[in-house]
From TrEMBL:
<protein>
    <recommendedName>
        <fullName>DNA polymerase V</fullName>
    </recommendedName>
</protein>
<dbReference type="GO" id="GO:0006355">
    <property type="term" value="P:regulation of DNA-templated transcription"/>
</dbReference>
<dbReference type="InterPro" id="IPR007015">
    <property type="entry name" value="DNA_pol_V/MYBBP1A"/>
</dbReference>
<comment type="similarity">
    <text>Belongs to the MYBBP1A family.</text>
</comment>
<dbReference type="InterPro" id="IPR016024">
    <property type="entry name" value="ARM-type_fold"/>
</dbReference>
<dbReference type="GO" id="GO:0000182">
    <property type="term" value="F:rDNA binding"/>
</dbReference>
<dbReference type="Pfam" id="PF04931">
    <property type="entry name" value="DNA_pol_phi"/>
</dbReference>
<feature type="region of interest" description="Disordered">
    <location>
        <begin position="1"/>
        <end position="40"/>
    </location>
</feature>
<feature type="compositionally biased region" description="Acidic residues">
    <location>
        <begin position="790"/>
        <end position="802"/>
    </location>
</feature>
<dbReference type="GO" id="GO:0005730">
    <property type="term" value="C:nucleolus"/>
</dbReference>
<feature type="compositionally biased region" description="Basic and acidic residues">
    <location>
        <begin position="778"/>
        <end position="789"/>
    </location>
</feature>
<feature type="compositionally biased region" description="Acidic residues">
    <location>
        <begin position="743"/>
        <end position="757"/>
    </location>
</feature>
<keyword id="KW-0539">Nucleus</keyword>
<feature type="region of interest" description="Disordered">
    <location>
        <begin position="739"/>
        <end position="802"/>
    </location>
</feature>
Length: 1029
C-alpha cells in the first residue's frame, strides 16, 4: 500500500512541476529574441523568378525565362561549378512537377544547357567535375521514388525521369562531339525499362526513341546507335506493340540494315504476310506472340485517341507509294488502298469493333482526309467506314454521331481548301463497291457542298462521273437504280441552282464545252431519248431507265432552265435555245439515240418548221429592229418544242399560234398585223401562265418582261379582265375553256342535294331516264362545240360521265334495281320497286344518306379545287401586272390597271389576292418617291378624269375595309398628282370630285367610304401649297 501511495505521490508532484514549467515558459515568451532572416540578394530573387516563369502557362513567358537562364549559366559567362550543379539539380527536380507547362519549360532549358556545357563548344567551365555519365546518374537519382508515396507523386516522378532522359537525348551530347555508345546504351536501358514496366508511359517513350533515331540523320558513323535501339525491342519484349512497330519502321527508314532478322517478314511490318499481325498490334491486341506467355505485354489504360504509331504507319506507306509513282511513268497500283482497308476498315470498323476503336477510325479518317495527297483520297471511303458513318449520322443519340459529323465536315473543308480534291472525294463516296447511301440529309449535304467547292475543270469531271453512274448505277435492282439516279439528278440540279460563279460565267454557245453544257446534255438525253441499236454497250443504261425516272429527269431539266433564266450570261433566251438545239441535234439525224417522241409526218413537219423559225429568230436577233420581240419568241418557241417532245399535244397547237404571231410581226402591214400579233402574243403568254409548272410561269414572266413596252391596250385588257372572273366552277370553265356539260351536271347535282332523301329517289330516277332519252341530241351538240373549242374538253366530259355512271350504278345497287337503258330492257326488273313497304323504305335510308354524302363531298371538293385554280391563275396575272407597272410606270396605259386591282382588295375578296394586290399598288404609288420616276402624262385627260371618278365609286364598294379605303385614297391621290401636274387648274375640278364624295359620305351613315379618302387629300394639298411658297 505504501509503494502505491508513494507512486501516486510522485505522479502528483510531477504534474505540479509540469504546470510550473508551462507557466514559466509562458512568462518567458516575451523575452525570446526575434527570429533572424538570412539576407537575400537581388540576384537570388531574380533567379527564383526565372524558375517560376519556366512553369508559366504562357509559351512566351516560358521561352523568355529559358533564354535568360541558359544565358546566365552559359560557359561564355563563366559561371561557378557550384552554380551550374545547383542549376542542373533545380532543373531536374522541376521536371517532376505535376504541371504540364512546367515539364516543357524545364525540359527545354535543361536540353539547351546540357548542349552548352557538354556539346561541341570549345568553351568549358573550369573545375567543373561533371560529365554526361554523371548527369545521367543525377537524373536517375533526383527522379527516383523512394518509399510509399501517393500515386500522383509517383506518376509525376516517372514522367520527370522520362523527360530528363529525353533532354539528354535531344541535347545530342551522347553523339557530339564524339559518340558515347556506353552512355547511349545506358539511357536506352532506362527508357526501355519505363516503356516495359509503365504501360501508360509507353507511348511517350516510343516518341522519345523515334525522335532520337531521327536525330542520327542516317549518318553511317551512328549506325551502332540505331542498331542498339532495334535490338532492345526484343530484349525488352516490345516488338509486338504499336510503339515497337513505330520504332522498327523509323530505324528501317534511316538504317535499313540495322534491324535484326527473323522478327518481321523481310524485316518489314507492312508486308502483306504480316498485315493480319500488324492489325492486331495496332489495335493493341497483345495476345499475338508466338513465343512464351512471359512475352505478353501489359496493356495500357484506355486511350481516346489512336497513338502516334498509326500516323507513322500510314505516312510510311504513302511515302513508299509516292516514291513508286515517281519511279514509274505509268501509275502503278497503290498499296495504300489495301493497307487502309486491312488496317483501318476491316480492323477498326468491323462489325465487332468497339465504339472506342471506331472512334479511332474516324479520327484517322479526319487526319488522312486533311493531309493525304489527292491520289489517295478515294481509298479512304472504304465500305465498313461508310456503313458505320451512315449508321452514326442518321440517328442523333448514337455515341459517335458527333464524330461522324466531324468526319463529314472535314471532307467539305478539304474540298474548299483544295478544289482539285473534289473529284477523288466524289468518286470515293459514290463508286462501285461502296455501301454509301447518299440520299441521307447530312451525307447529301456533304456531297453537294463538296461539288460546289470544285473548280470548273474538276466540276466537269464530276459531271462525267455522275453520267457514268446514271448509265451504270452499280445495281441491277430497278428500284435501287431509280433511287440512285434520282439522287444524282437532284445533286446535278443543286449544282445548277447553287453554282456561285455565274457572274463570271462566259457566254453560252452551242459549241462551248463546259460542265453546264455536259449537265444539260445528260438531262436532255435521259429525258427525251433512248439508246438505238447502233449505240455502244457502255452507253446503254443498265437497268433501263423507266418512265418514272424519265419524267423525273424532265422535271429536273425544267427546274434547271427556270434557274438559268435568271443568269445574265448573254441574252435571256440563250439557255432555252441551247437546250432546244441539243434536242434537235440528237433527234435528227438519230445515230446512237432515238427520241421517245413519236408522231405522224404532219406533226414532224410542224416541229421541223418551228425549228427553222427558231433558227431564223436566233440568227437575226430582232424583229423590225426590236430585240425584245425576238427574244420573247425564242423563249416561247424553245419551251413549246420541249413540250412537244414531252408528248404534249397542245404544244403543237401552240407552235401554230407562235408561227402566226411571228408572221404577223414580220408582215409589211405594220399597223393591223402588228397589233394583232401583239395581242396574240399576250394570249400565248396567258396559255403558258395557265400551266401549273413553275417553268412555264417563269418563261411567261421572262417573255412578258421583255415585251412590256409593246403591250397594247387590248392586250392589257385581256390581262385585267381575268381579275374579275368568278372564283368558282363557272369561272374555271371560262378561264380554261371547259365544256358546259360539266357545269350543268354540277349545278344539277347541287340542286338535287337540297331535296329530301325520299324525293331524291324518285327525282334522280326520273332525271336519269330523261337524260337517257334526251342525251343523244344534247351530247352531239355539246360534243361538236367541244371539238370547236378545245381538245381538252373530251377528256373532262368523259370523266364526268364516268362519275355520274358510277353514282347511278351505286344508287341502283342500293335500290336493287337496274339502270334505265334506251332499249327499256330494265323495265321489267324494276316492277318490284313499286311493292316496297314502309319498313323497306326505312331500311334504305342509311344507304341513301351515305351515297348522297359521298356525292356532296365530291361536289364540294370540285368547287374548292376550281376556286383554288382560279385564285392561283389570278395570282400569276398579278405577277405579270406587277412586272408591267414596274417597267412601264410612266406609261399612261398603266393607269388602266388600277381599278381592276382595287376590286381585288375589297372586304369580301380572297385574302391572298387582297394582300398581293395591295402590295403591288403600294409599290407602284411609291415608285416616284423612291426611284424618282416621272409621272404618266396621258394625252387624253378625259380618260384620266374617268378613272378618278371610278376610283371614288370603287371606294364605296370596299365593305368599310381599311385596307381597301387606304388603297383607294392612294390611287385617287395618284391620279390627282398626274392631273395637277399636267395643269394646276385641274386642282379645282379634283376638289369637286372629292367634295361630291364627301357630301355622300356625310349624308349617308351607311356609306362605304372611309374618312381616310379625304384626309390624305387634305394633307397632300397642305404640303403642296406650302412647298409652292
Amino acid at each position: 500500500m505504501r509503494i502505491n501511495f508513494q507512486m501516486g505521490g510522485i505522479k502528483t508532484k510531477r504534474k505540479s512541476l509540469k504546470r510550473e514549467r508551462e507557466v514559466a515558459d509562458e512568462n518567458a515568451v516575451s523575452e525570446t529574441p526575434p527570429k533572424r532572416f538570412r539576407p537575400t540578394s537581388e540576384d537570388h530573387v531574380s533567379l527564383v523568378k526565372l524558375y517560376e516563369d519556366l512553369a508559366a502557362e504562357s509559351d512566351e513567358i516560358r521561352l523568355e525565362a529559358a533564354k535568360k537562364l541558359i544565358l546566365r549559366f552559359s560557359p561564355e559567362n563563366n559561371p561557378s561549378p557550384k552554380a551550374i550543379k545547383q542549376a542542373l539539380d533545380r532543373l531536374i527536380r522541376g521536371l517532376c512537377s505535376h504541371r504540364k507547362a512546367a515539364r516543357f519549360g524545364f525540359c527545354v532549358t535543361l536540353t539547351e544547357l546540357l548542349r552548352q556545357l557538354f556539346g561541341p563548344s570549345k568553351i568549358t567551365v573550369p573545375d567543373l567535375d561533371l560529365d554526361v555519365s554523371a548527369v545521367i546518374e543525377l537524373v536517375n537519382v533526383k527522379t527516383k521514388v523512394d518509399g510509399n508515396v501517393p500515386g500522383q507523386e509517383r506518376r509525376d516522378h516517372l514522367i520527370g525521369k522520362l523527360f530528363g532522359f529525353k533532354a539528354i537525348m535531344q541535347s545530342s551530347t551522347l553523339i557530339e562531339p564524339e559518340l558515347l555508345l556506353e552512355n547511349w546504351n545506358q539511357v536506352l536501358d532506362h527508357i526501355y525499362e519505363l516503356a516495359r514496366d509503365v504501360p501508360w508511359l509507353r507511348e511517350e517513350c516510343g516518341l522519345v526513341l523515334c525522335e532520337a533515331i531521327k536525330s542520327l540523320k542516317s549518318l553511317p558513323s551512328l549506325r551502332p546507335c540505331a542498331q542498339e535501339v532495334a535490338e532492345r525491342l526484343s530484349l525488352f519484349k516490345l516488338v509486338n506493340t504499336p510503339e515497337g512497330v513505330a520504332i522498327w519502321l523509323t530505324v528501317r527508314a534511316n538504317y535499313d540494315d540495322a534491324v535484326p532478322d527473323h522478327i518481321w517478314h523481310r524485316k518489314d511490318p507492312l508486308s502483306k504476310k504480316e498485315r493480319s499481325r500488324l492489325a492486331k498490334i495496332l489495335r493493341e491486341d497483345f495476345n499475338t506472340s508466338k513465343e512464351s506467355a512471359d512475352e505478353v505485354v501489359k496493356s495500357a489504360a484506355a486511350n481516346p485517341n489512336p497513338i502516334f504509331a498509326w500516323d507513322l504507319v500510314l505516312t510510311e506507306i504513302l511515302r513508299r507509294d509516292e516514291r513508286r509513282r515517281s519511279e514509274h511513268s505509268d501509275d502503278s497500283k497503290s498499296e495504300f488502298s489495301q493497307v487502309w482497308r486491312d488496317l483501318v476498315d476491316e480492323n477498326l470498323f468491323s462489325s465487332t469493333a468497339s465504339h472506342e476503336r471506331k472512334s479511332w477510325g474516324f479520327k484517322l479518317f479526319i487526319k488522312m482526309i486533311t493531309t493525304a495527297p489527292i491520289w489517295a483520297l478515294s481509298a479512304l471511303f472504304s465500305p465498313n467506314l461508310m456503313r458505320t458513318m451512315i449508321n452514326q449520322v442518321q440517328i442523333e443519340d448514337r455515341l459517335l454521331h458527333a464524330t461522324a459529323l466531324a468526319a463529314l465536315k472535314s471532307v467539305q473543308l478539304r474540298a474548299q481548301r483544295d478544289p482539285g480534291s473534289a473529284i477523288p472525294i466524289i468518286t470515293g463516296m459514290t463508286s462501285e463497291q461502296r455501301t454509301f447511301e447518299f440520299d441521307k440529309h447530312a451525307i447529301r449535304k456533304t456531297l453537294e457542298q463538296t461539288v460546289l467547292a470544285a473548280d470548273d475543270q474538276t466540276l466537269r469531271q464530276i459531271v462525267r462521273h455522275f453520267r457514268a453512274l446514271v448509265l451504270r448505277p452499280k445495281s441491277q435492282d430497278q428500284a435501287s437504280a431509280n433511287i440512285r439516279r434520282q439522287s444524282i439528278a437532284d445533286i446535278l440540279l443543286n449544282i445548277v441552282k447553287s453554282y456561285p460563279r455565274y457572274a463570271t460565267f462566259s457566254s453560252v454557245s452551242s459549241k462551248e464545252e463546259s460542265w453546264l453544257r455536259d449537265t444539260l446534255e445528260l438531262f436532255v438525253e435521259i429525258s427525251y431519248f433512248t439508246p438505238s441499236k447502233n449505240a455502244k454497250t457502255n452507253q446503254v443504261p443498265l437497268p433501263p431507265i423507266d418512265d418514272a425516272n424519265r419524267d423525273l429527269f424532265r422535271e429536273r431539266l425544267s427546274s434547271c432552265l427556270t434557274r438559268l433564266l435568271r443568269v445574265e450570261a448573254g441574252d435571256r433566251a440563250s439557255f432555252a435555245l441551247l437546250i432546244a438545239n441539243m434536242v434537235r441535234s440528237k433527234a435528227w439525224p438519230a445515230k446512237t439515240l432515238e427520241p421517245t417522241f413519236k408522231a405522224d409526218k404532219s406533226i414532224i413537219n410542224i416541229v421541223e418548221r418551228s425549228f427553222e423559225a427558231l433558227d431564223s429568230l436566233a440568227s437575226k436577233g430582232s424583229i423590225d429592229g426590236k430585240r425584245s420581240a425576238a427574244d420573247s419568241l425564242v423563249l416561247l418557241y424553245s419551251l413549246a418544242l420541249l413540250q412537244v417532245f414531252n408528248g404534249d399535244g397542245d404544244a403543237v397547237l401552240m407552235l401554230d399560234d407562235l408561227d402566226s404571231s411571228r408572221k404577223s410581226l414580220l408582215s409589211k402591214d405594220k399597223k393591223s398585223s402588228g397589233t394583232q400579233a401583239q395581242n396574240t402574243f399576250v394570249e400565248l403568254i396567258l396559255t403558258f401562265l395557265g400551266n401549273p409548272r413553275n417553268l412555264f410561269r417563269r418563261i411567261a414572266e421572262e417573255a412578258f418582261t421583255i415585251f412590256t413596252a409593246d403591250i397594247t391596250p387590248e392586250g392589257l385588257q385581256s390581262l385585267t379582265s381575268i381579275l374579275d372572273t368568278a372564283e368558282n366552277l363557272e369561272g374555271q370553265r371560262e378561264l380554261f375553256e371547259q365544256g358546259s356539260n360539266e357545269l350543268a351536271d354540277e349545278v344539277s347535282s347541287e340542286e338535287s342535294l337540297e331535296v329530301s332523301d325520299v324525293d331524291l329517289v324518285s327525282n334522280e330516277t326520273d332525271e336519269g331516264i330523261d337524260d337517257g332519252n334526251g342525251s343523244s341530241k344534247e351530247g352531239s351538240e355539246s360534243g361538236s362545240n367541244k371539238d370547236d373549242e378545245s381538245p381538252i374538253e373530251d377528256g373532262s366530259g368523259g370523266e364526268d360521265e364516268e362519275e355520274l355512271a358510277r353514282f347511278n350504278e351505286l344508287l341502283a345497287q342500293t335500290l336493287q334495281t337496274s339502270q334505265a337503258r334506251l332499249d327499256g330492257a330494265a323495265a321489267d326488273d324494276s316492277s318490284n320497286e313499286e311493292d316496297m313497304d314502309d319498313e323497306q323504305m326505312m331500311a334504305l335510308d342509311p344507304h341513301l344518306t351515305k351515297i348522297f354524302q359521298q356525292r356532296r363531298k365530291t361536289s364540294k371538293e370540285a368547287r374548292e379545287e376550281a376556286k383554288q385554280m382560279v385564285v392561283r391563275f389570278k395570282s400569276r396575272i398579278l405577277d405579270l401586272l406587277s412586272i408591267y407597272l414596274d417597267k412601264e410606270y410612266s406609261n399612261p396605259l398603266s393607269l388602266e390597271v388600277i381599278i381592276p386591282m382595287l376590286r381585288r382588295i375589297r372586304a369580301n375578296a380572297n385574302r391572298q389576292l387582297t394582300e398581293k394586290s395591295n402590295k403591288i399598288l403600294i409599290t407602284y404609288f411609291d415608285t416616284r418617291k423612291k426611284h424618282k420616276g416621272p409621272l404618266p402624262k396621258p394625252e387624253n385627260q378625259d380618260a384620266a378624269w374617268k378613272i378618278l371618278n371610278e376610283i371614288h365609286e370603287e371606294a364605296k364598294m370596299g365593305g368599310k375595309s381599311t385596307l381597301h379605303a387606304t388603297a383607294c385614297s392612294s390611287a385617287s391621290l395618284h391620279l390627282v398628282k398626274i392631273l395637277v401636274g399636267l395643269d394646276r387648274s385641274n386642282y379645282s375640278r379634283a376638289v369637286d370630285v372629292y367634295s361630291e364624295s364627301q357630301k355622300q359620305w356625310f349624308m349617308n351613315r351607311d356609306s362605304g367610304i372611309l374618312p381616310i379618302l379625304f384626309t390624305k387629300f387634305h394633307s397632300w394639298s397642305t404640303e403642296t401649297r406650302n412647298q409652292r411658297k
